[in-house]
Amino acid sequence: MPPLELVIFFRGTRKNLGLLEPDCTVAKIKEAAVNITSPYGLDSTSKIMLNATNPENKMKVALDSEFALEFLRKIHQIVGVSTLTVEVLNESVDGNASVGGQTVVGGQTVVGRQAAVGEQVVVGADKSNEDAWLSDYSDRRADSDDDDVNMEFIETEFDGAVEPKPIIDEGSEDSGDHQRGESSDLESDSDDNLSDANKEVRRLVDSSDDDVELGIVQLTNYLQQHEYKVGADGKHRLKLGHVFRDVGHFREILHKVMVRKRFAIKTVYSEPRRFVGTCKKANYPWYVSGAKLNDGTVFILREYNKNHECRLTNKTVKVTSAWVASKINGQVVVDLNVKIDILKNHVQETYSLKIGKLTLYRARAKARLEVFGDHSRGYQKLFDYVTAIHKADPGAICKVLCDAISIPNKVLFQRFFVAFPAQKNAYLNGCRPFIRVDGCHLKGKYGGVLLAVVGIDGNNEIVPLALCVCEIENTETWGWFMENLNNYLDDGRNCMVDRTDNNASECFNCWILAYRDRPCLTMLEEIRCRLMKRFTKRRNEAATWKKQLTPKVLKDLDKKNKTAQKMIVQASGDLNFQVMDRGYNPLRRFVVKLESSTCDCGYWEIVGLPCEHAMAAMGYARHQVQEYVPTCFSRQAYLTTYSVMFSPLPDQCTWEPTGRSLIDPPIVERKIGRPKKSRKRAVNEPQKEKRKFFVICSFCGGSNHNVRSCPLRPSVARSNRVRNNNFEASTTSSQPLNASQQARLRRKQAAVAKSIGSGQPAATTSETARNVLS
Q1: What pLDDT score was predicted for residue 574?
Q2: 534-560 pLDDT tens trace
Q3: 429, 638 contact by CB (below 8 A)
């Protein structure tokens, strides 16, 4: 592209300034112009104005700021002109300018010379002048063609100026349409009734591509200044001329405004290039219209009548489930299974809206998806998760088992095992030598089972040691889990425990209940984070303990000591005793050997803690109880249990990709009916109580029957009479009653006898027989 050259023109004098260098400023150009104008009394840069004219299309730019100079360079890049003529104008007292004694208003000559055909004047720095240029730089419709009207220009003497006039071919088919359009279109799209801002936006939207290309800098500035932004108070408000990304963005903001003002709209047009909406109630003036620019870059609010006269309502506002989901995210984060009634009350109290339950169900599902992710994507980054764990905790064991054979080009998830160094240290150096294993069903979209092993620390609290997610609970999956567990935690320790139930595993299953219906990766990461916080909390609590033993063990020993004080102790040397227990009738004798830490009751050998009989012997011999308690119950062992912490993991977006295939979710066969979330209880387990309710008749208000069987209804009374008559006829017949009829008759006779005993009038046998079937 050729370099840009500037030429200064004043009263017939021309001076070539040379090429427009990058360091050239408006001040330097004005100083060069003063050298020409100083003989005419214009010896200061403050007394002159500069207009740069493009000889190609007579477009004129006022050089009053560095922005205007930058605009010249943009024109040079777009149009490719090589020379720009700079006119020097004399600035008069009233703020106007003159070219050689001729007045120029706003940069356009009024007396002696009018603007040439196609000439346009642009002011760069002043925002008001910029908006005026945007409103005047084109009068052609964006969807019009050059063939609709043949525009030609003729020179007409009007104070020495050239006036543009359209020439219409009277013989063409478009002439009649154009003449008719002059009256009809002007009446419908007349600018007389529009405000200045409305005219500005209409002309901006109706501009042609050529004009937008030439005024790209001014257009960009306008779009930036009128880009839609939320108010300072956080509320959404529409204003004529607002610029949006597209029609979807416009509809989103319009919906928020509609919800805030609590009224419904009727969509007349909703297309990628335009949107028209009115008030849902007829004969109301509220109206909104938007359209895309001809180049398809942005969407502009063209017309907006914000006068809304209909009564506000909270029932007819159409809110989408996506909008409701964005408003209930906080409740879903706290409680994934938050009740629909709670969400309904929250939306009604906060936004004064009444929303149906179906919309709330869908909104809750979308909020879950937005907060916790998609279940199908919960398996994809498990390989990256394994790499991140090994990088953060080098001693961790993490294994993934997949199926890449069943379905070609797919890697199906099967099992996942994970255990951290903090858990291994807790079991080997602090926990009691006893573990509990159990499995629980996952409630997500793809099901599965979570196998877990749980240990017990010195304070009788659960310590999760390892986790495994598998497809089903069977011998194969349990074998794979126990093999990995044995390689990681086996230490060869005689176990010491006082319970044979599996309540610790049930407690762990309840502890992670809130995470069992979330995507696989989300569930594993949230369990890890909760374990990390749990280990830190317990270590900090143990640092404040003053005793040598853990609090729960001390409480248990104090309880046993009170029972031991009632026993009779007989010594046999220094370390052997026989203890008479008064809790038995008759008295029972137990032999306690402190040296071997044994008692005939067997509790001491199994649990590891002294029993009541041993406590009585220790009290008799004045021995300290701490001498006979295993080290796993000490405060130091408890601190050692939680001495190794979980290493924090970085955010998922920062994990290093392994380059391996993404893992697909397992294939699940859906059964007929609604999937059950509650487990099947064993036969010996207490069943869940059924809901108790009372039936109230809506006809008579009585209890224990409904309206269909109400005896006071005429139809029911008639059917009862017919039934009684048929039964009476059958009882008086020669045929004997069958076994069922005899049983019913006996029950009725018993009821009659009971009524006689209560003082009520008795019914006869025939009456009883007639009422058997009632």
Answers
A1: 83
A2: 999 999 999 999 999 999 999 999 999
A3: no
- Burial grade of 358 (CB within 10 A; 0-12, 13-18, 19 or more): exposed
Question: Does residue 165 or residue 86 have the better pLDDT?
Answer: 86
Q: Between β-strands 120-123 and 59-62, what pairing exists: parallel, antiparallel or unpaired?
A: parallel
- As a whole number of angstroms, the distance between CA 579 and CA 617 comes to 7
Q: What does pTM read for this prediction?
A: 0.53
Helices 421-429 and 475-489: crossing angle, nearest 10°?
Answer: 70
In the sheet with 397-403, reading across from the earlier edge strand, the strands are: 397-403, 412-419, 462-470, 449-456, 435-441
Tokens of 138: 């084109």
* Distances, alpha carbon 677 to alpha carbons 78, 517, 674, 680, 707, in Å: 67, 10, 9, 10, 35
Task: Give 89-111 as a 3 state SS string.
Answer: EEECCCCCEEECCEEEECCEECC
Cβ atoms of 224 and 276 within 8 Å: the answer is no
Give helix 551-564 / helix 612-621 axis angle, nearest 10°. Answer: 80
The conformational region for residue 338 under phi > 0 = left, psi -120 to 50 = alpha, else beta, is beta
Q: Which long-range contacts (CB under 8 A, 24 or more apart) does 494-498 make?
A: 494/433, 495/432, 495/433, 495/434, 496/432, 496/433, 496/434, 496/606, 496/607, 496/608, 496/630, 496/632, 497/432, 497/434, 497/456, 497/606, 497/607, 498/603, 498/606, 498/607, 498/609
Q: Is the pLDDT of residue 45 over 80?
A: no
Specify whether the CB–CB gap between 707 and 698 falls below 8 A. Answer: yes
Residue 128: name the closest of 200, 183, 41 by CA: 200
Contact 104, 110 (CB under 8 A): yes
Written as one string, the DSSP assignment of 623-655 is --GGGGS-GGGBHHHHHHHTSSPPPP---GGGS
Tally the C-alpha atoms within 13 A of residue 365's C-alpha that lie toward its C-beta: 10
Mean pLDDT to the nearest integer, 35-60: 69
The pLDDT tens digits for 48-89 are 777 776 655 455 666 666 767 776 776 666 555 566 666 666
| The predicted structure's pLDDT at residue 93 | 34
What pLDDT, in 10s, does the model give residues 491-541?
766 666 667 778 888 899 889 988 888 899 999 999 999 999 999 999 999
C-alpha dist (Å) from residue 531 to 233, 527, 536, 568: 41, 6, 9, 47
Residue range 565-593: mean pLDDT, rounded = 90
Centre a 10 Å sphere on the Cβ of residue 2 and count the other Cβ atoms it contains: 10
> For residue 103, what are the β-bridge partners?
98
pLDDT in tens, 355-364: 888 999 999 9
pLDDT at 2: 59
Predicted pLDDT of residue 211: 47
For 523, the enclosing helix (H) or strand (E) is helix 520-542
Picking from 192-196, 274-278, 279-283, 427-431, which range would have the lowest pLDDT averaged per residue?
192-196
Q: At what angle do helices 421-429 and 520-542 cross, to 10 degrees?
A: 40
- The SS3 assignment for 304 reads strand
Backbone phi, then psi, for 608, in 5-degree steps?
Answer: 100, -15
Give yes or no for residue 216 having a pLDDT over 70: no
Half-sphere exposure of 16 (CA within 13 A, CB side): 6
Instruction: Kindly provide the residue ranges of all beta strands, DSSP E only, lying in 142-298, ordered along the sequence.
Output: 243-244, 265-270, 274-279, 287-292
pLDDT score for 684: 78
| Cα–Cα distance list, 413 to 384, 468, 485, 525, 629 (Å) | 14, 13, 20, 17, 47
Name the amino acid, one letter, at 26: V
What's the token pair of residue 278? 């009115």
Question: Tokens in use for 580?
Answer: 């008479």
- CA distances (Å), 29 to each of 48, 115, 526, in order? 11, 24, 67
Indicate the DSSP class of residue 598: E
Q: Is the pLDDT of residue 136 over 80?
A: no
Helix axes 382-392, 520-542, angle to 10 degrees: 20
CA distance 452 to 432: 17
**Beta-bridge partners for 593:** 576, 598
